[in-house]
Design brief:
The complex is a heterodimer of chains A (123) and B (157). With 123 residues, chain A is mainly alpha-helical. Chain A has four helices and two strands. In chain A, β1 and β2 form a beta hairpin. The termini of chain A are far apart. The model of chain B has no long low-confidence stretch (mean pLDDT 95). Chain B is elongated. Chain B has five helices and no strands. Chain B is an all-alpha fold and 157 residues long. The chains are: A mainly alpha (123), B mainly alpha (157). The interface between A and B is large, with 44 and 43 residues.
Chain lengths: 123, 157
């Protein structure tokens, strides 16, 4: 039987897994809204959407991390930390928040840099 | 005709309602927890309620956004923003990233508040985690709401 602490900490690690996957995974499939088709590569001269795939891959990664973390956190060597030490919970909270904030900052920088390039081309 | 284009305006209205509900419940969640931990444990029941409302509203808003996105991508972003206002495209993308990243923190908040009751307060060791997740969710919601409003003034679906 898995304790509440183990399930919560596994969820924290899943947050980290989601953030890392969201920042790094940029593969398809792409949705092409005009043609209403999915394809593994971007079709030329038509808008393509990668957000759905990015979200789905990240959710898959988070699920995998969650399922892997449950038995690992339940190991006897880790159980005393998991169940008793307040610092363990705080460390995981900082790790999860840091992963989310760093991912968002990295993506925001990329998007703004791209916008600046477009503006420079137009001017 | 794009996917869901014929009903995109009602979907956008529901998206707005969901976003307002999610933002309001996130703010209430923080305030109620503060009161509950400050010596009024009766508020733990409403903490649970607001976490449930937050998860429901957030999931619904995200799902509605996914349905609206194809129309926005073509009619607004591709046909106007990408060439005329590239900074708006960037802000929209950042808003989408923030919204996606905040989903799991909302689930964490929901799980953390499940067993709370008058005689079952939030354990001290989970307070930093609760605060960190709520801070990210509130930041993402406020940024998304501000961006969504501004984008609507530039051009909408």
């Amino acid at each position: 039987m898995l304790s509440r602490a183990i399930r919560i900490y596994a969820l924290c690690l899943a947050v980290v897994g989601f953030a890392v996957a969201y920042a790094t995974v940029t593969v398809g499939p792409y949705y092409h809204p005009v043609e209403r088709v999915w394809s593994m590569t971007k079709l030329p001269d038509t808008p393509a959407m990668s957000w759905y795939a990015r979200f789905a891959w990240s959710a898959l990664a988070a699920s995998a991390v969650f399922l892997l973390a449950l038995p690992v956190l339940n190991l006897p060597a880790l159980q005393s930390h998991v169940e008793q030490r307040k610092g363990f919970a705080t460390a995981l909270a900082l790790l999860a928040f840091g992963a989310l904030a760093a991912t968002l900052a990295y993506l925001a920088y990329s998007e703004l840099q791209h916008a600046a390039q477009v503006l420079a081309l137009h001017s | 005709m794009l996917a869901f284009e014929s009903i995109v305006k009602p979907l956008l209205f529901l998206h707005l309602l969901g976003a307002i509900t999610a933002l309001a419940s996130a703010i209430h969640l923080g305030l109620r927890l503060r009161r509950a931990r400050g010596g009024q444990p009766g508020h733990y029941r409403t903490v649970r309620l607001h976490a449930t409302v937050l998860l429901s509203a957030y999931a619904a808003t995200l799902a509605l956004g996914m349905l609206i996105y194809p129309t926005f991508r073509v009619r607004v972003r591709h046909e106007f923003l990408d060439t005329q206002v590239p900074i708006a495209t960037a802000l929209f993308e950042i808003k989408e990233h923030a919204a996606a990243l905040a989903l799991l923190p909302v689930i964490v908040l929901f799980v953390l508040t499940r067993p709370l009751a008058f005689n079952r307060p939030l354990e001290d060791r989970y307070v930093p985690l609760f605060s960190a997740m709520l801070t990210f969710v509130l930041g993402a919601l406020l940024f998304s709401a501000g961006c969504g409003w501004w984008l609507g003034t530039v051009r909408s679906v």
